[in-house]
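dude i think i finally got it to work??
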Amino acid sequence: MPRRKPHVPPSPLAQRDGIDAVHLKLPPDGGWETVRDYLVERLPVGPDVVDALLAAGEVAAVDGPLSGDSPYVPGAHVWFHRPLAPEPRVPFAPRVLYRDAHLLVVDKPHFLATTPRGSHITETALARLRRELDLPRLSPAHRLDRLTAGLVLFTLRPAERGAYQRLFSEKRVHKEYEAIAPYNPELDLPRTVRSRIVKERGIIAAYEVPGEPNSESRVELLDHRAHGPGAPLARYRLLPRTGRTHQLRVHMNALGVPILGDPVYPVVADPAPDDYSRPLQLLARTLEFTDPLTGRAHRFESERTLRAWTDHEGWAGGATH
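look at this
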């Protein structure tokens, strides 16, 4: 039988800028006399930051705010709002394509992360949609890379999130991506690419290794044409059968046709955080599934286009709009 998730009480701290308070469950053993002592040892910030959080009422247990001398209680639930550094405003907005009592389907722009992670916290699709639509309980059913544009599915009710997440984990969602990459007339397409992809924590690029495949993508050629004096480009349909990190980008690079605008494959670059020129030419074009709660058949199509195909000169010049 699947292991039941441990019950977590509701947070006593309201969301801030669309971001939930961080939750911790205090370890059952340890030599800390106060919650402050534990936080000072546990959090990657100085004691002065912890003291400031406690003084401002930003650390709370189930029954309310904690103070600097609140005793350590093994197994207790504690919440706090972490200090957030200023983030550059991503000048592109997610578009709502569909909403009902259960779902929100969004057409995400390039450069906007789906969920808080790393240095992208408040400038994420989740935080912005929570704030702008007044949907504090909004949650993602899956994720899309920050650099990839296209369709993302969110759920409105926490209790229903698992049903939609299982659609993705059980491969009951038909997903189609579109990509712009170099055209190689000698590349035999369509084909199915299978490989073993490894993504190590702290390393930007995923890579392929020998062994049992854990990733599968179908690559189809939709069209190709010349763009000015440069090498010809092609428009590809990509059908991921699995969902490894950077899977489509890794597979296209392995075929010798890396996706245009990719800052990682084949060579890792380091663009500035606010450099929005030449976005990755990868788009989550289609999501199709049967709603697990209503039984309704859904098919959603992104309204976005990949600029390198429609305006290659503008894209290559780094113009944003």
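The helical segments are 35-42, 47-55, 125-133, 161-169, 247-254, 307-310, 312-316.
im so relieved honestly
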